[in-house]
Amino acid sequence: xxxxxxxxxxxxxxxxxxxxxxxxxxxxxxxxxxxxxxxxxxxxxxxxxxxxxxxxxxxxxxxxxxxxxxxxxxxxxxxxxxxxxxxxxxxxxxxxxxxxxxxxxxxxxxxxxxxxxxxxxxxxxxxxxxxxxxxxxxxxxxxxxxxxxxxxxxxxxxxxxxxxxxxxxxxxxxxxxxxxxxxxxxxxxxxxxxxxxxxxxxxxxxxxxxxxxxxxxxxxxxxxxxxxxxxxxxxxxxxxxxxxxxxxxxxxxxxxxxxxxxxxxxxxxxxxxxxxxxxxxxxxxxxxxxxxxxxxxxxxxxxxxxxxxxxxxxxxxxxxxxxxxxxxxxxxxxxxxxxxxxxxxxxxxxxxxxxxxxxxxxxxxxxxxxxxxxxxxxxxxxxxxxxxxxxxxxxxxxxxxxxxxxxxxxxxxxxxxxxxxxxxxxxxxxxxxxxxxxxxxxxxxxxxxxxxxxxxxxxxxxxxxxxxxxxxxxxxxxxxxxxxxxxxxxxxxxxxxxxxxxxxxxxxxxxxxxxxxxxxxxxxxxxxxxxxxxxxxxxxxxxxxxxxxxxxxxxxxxxxxxxxxxxxxxxxxxxxxxxxxxxxxxxxxxxxxxxxxxxxxxxxxxxxxxxxxxxxxxxxxxxxxxxxxxxxxxxxxxxxxxxxxxxxxxxxxxxxxxxxxxxxxxxxxxxxxxxxxxxxxxxxxxxxxxxxxxxxxxxxxxxxxxxxxxxxxxxxxxxxxxxxxxxxxxxxxxxxxxxxxxxxxxxxxxxxxxxxxxxx
Length: 760
Known about the structure:
This protein is mainly β. Helices cover 3% and strands 44% of the residues. The strands form 15 sheets. Strands 1, 2, 3, 4 and 5 form a five-stranded antiparallel β-sheet that branches.
């Protein structure tokens, strides 16, 4: 149509677009590909790109051409012919037209629409692989590259073509594994391979998926590489070229960036303590030494920690606790405790592989010689020489490991894995032909992951090579908790506040009855789930052969009412297991019942009474088991105007002389138990201090009486008159007595007169 017909000059006279003109015989277009905007309609400002491989005059003249909606088609990339293009509207990826097998380089640009676009190469060790004729696409926000031929794969990029990780493999070789590393919980694995043709590749298994995260080609191919990662941070992974000084490392899990640096001496073995600290041992000449590397994103600063006695060449380094142990190329063994590099001794004349429980006094070093055929042990701070254990082999050992009090050794020639528990006989736990851990390139053929309780080694008897595992039931000696379970409430004696006796119970680990007897368990109780805050005094019980223990015998309790506790069980003999229910370390929990104290009953002074004392005594009904009470007096019932408060160890209290109450005042008092548990307040008592009565004054009277007789014609009552002399004030009782006597006398006189009355 006139609208979308590319050859219609009425729409755009620039169509058809001219890319190249082939004029000579032999000129050829090998490949041409077109990448357009999703809505490209050949309109103004719409974008497209042409990628081509064009040979003209015997030379590659192709590349990438910009196709605008109208106008010319300038060539914006001339480095190489192009086999495939990918465009997401902003970013452009180009895969070369590559027919000869080899490393694949992807080109990328975020400025393809500018007047002078800039193209960059994918990282040399993060290419999609090796092979021929790669393809590229964008999908779902990520980029993908596809190749074919040797080491071909589907590779994904999440940084627009800068770095690729192989995620699906078409023709990739895993047949020759030269080293591997496994995290302590076995969640992350690294393995490095040599395909025997052109590449070394580093593979990472994360969340159950293997990805190829690095490829070495050219001069870096075909040599022995060691791979180590930091167990505390497996995203920090280090590669070292054995017998040379090359160190290549990534601090981002190998996903994007790898940095190359060099050691000070040739590397015999490498260990990664953390993302920021690594160590290597040297086998240079006759003066091997141990070096510490302080790592940053772009550099490694090396420190020489010294050499073992005699400046021997070194062979193996293994991390142990806060330090490490080293084995020499000619039998020497030493250790570094974070401060001092010390020599333990010498065994045999050949290379020695080492493992240890730690590097402090009391820790044990296990060393195995590849030539003498014995596994030897050395106790730091105690031993003066190595002691030979019952593990022996005629051909020597290429691997040794230590975990949970058990030593393991691998005999490469006979393909046997040995186990030794101190005090017992050594036994073979993998027979001839059952476990094939051929060790040729690796330094120490055995690794152990505590989290999954598994021994690991390379199995080269299969094609391709595999990482072989052996799950050790002794390392699985982890009890499971049965009582108390989460949320359990432990009852409390309401009288004395002591938790009732109860039994911690757990299920014995599988296999504890054979081949070993005499298993011991240690129970520990903590205030926190992480097990860092121990109960004080520490609650630790050790029992033998019985998966339970009774607490609180004899009325003694280490637990407090109302508190929540966490507990664990660990096998502590004849080996030391991980805490209960590892690797997740599920900790049991229980809560002690909150104690509710009995409320005291007030006794004296009685409620509503009057008291005459300004310092009265108080008492209440005693409560059995209570060791302390709180007593209060106030001037109002809310106890805001406090008069006196005190603690008492008995069921009584008295006011001190210095604290006297006031006459006529009303007071309120109460009491409660506070030990061993705080209880409710008693009923509020009320009393009043009485006002004292003033005693009356006693008066004794003195009386003088005069009597006169008068003759009258009419009855006359003669009333004696008294003349009262001044006397002292007498008491009312005497006054009333005199009045009564006087009245009686008057009445008697009247009666007498009436009876003797005469007429005149």
